Amino acid sequence: MSPPVFDEFYLGSRQRMLRCAYAVTGDVQEAQDVVQEAYARAWQNWRKVAAYDDPEAWVRTVAFRIAVSRWRRARSMFTAHRRHGGEPSAAPPDENTVALVAALRGIPEAQRTAIVLHHIAGRSVAEIAAETGVAEGTVKARLSRGRQALAHLLSTETGNSYA
Predict the structure, then answer these.
(1) Tens of pLDDT along 66-100?
(2) What would the CATH number be for the domain defined by 95-158?
(3) Fold of the domain spanning 6-84
């Protein structure tokens, strides 16, 4: 008796395999994932697997082991999360930050870039000039004009005078 061709084997066994994996995992998507991975491994080792008395048993065993491995990994992550807690969520931005970002959107990109690089990233005028490929005088002008535009936008938006 010659070994089965992989395509025939797959087509003839995939539904049984999926039903078994679903029964083990309790989740259709998880079952599909583990069965797909098991068949991929079978295909990679088909010469050896095809010679077994029951290639389907080999694929089923691999699928079950993959499912157990995923379950253990998920359980370990859950235990670690419970033990150490999740990452703290970031606080929402305050109203000043929201107003500043909105005002930054209202100025030209070149000025916005200069303002952000200088005041938020802490870059010097020379570093900004090198990074953006413009003269230092241009960076200074963009910073000056950008600050004036921001002061106007922020005072208009909040009713305060920042100038």
Answers:
(1) 999 999 988 888 888 778 876 677 888 888 888 88
(2) 1.10.10.10
(3) Rna Polymerase Sigma Factor; Chain: A (1.10.1740)
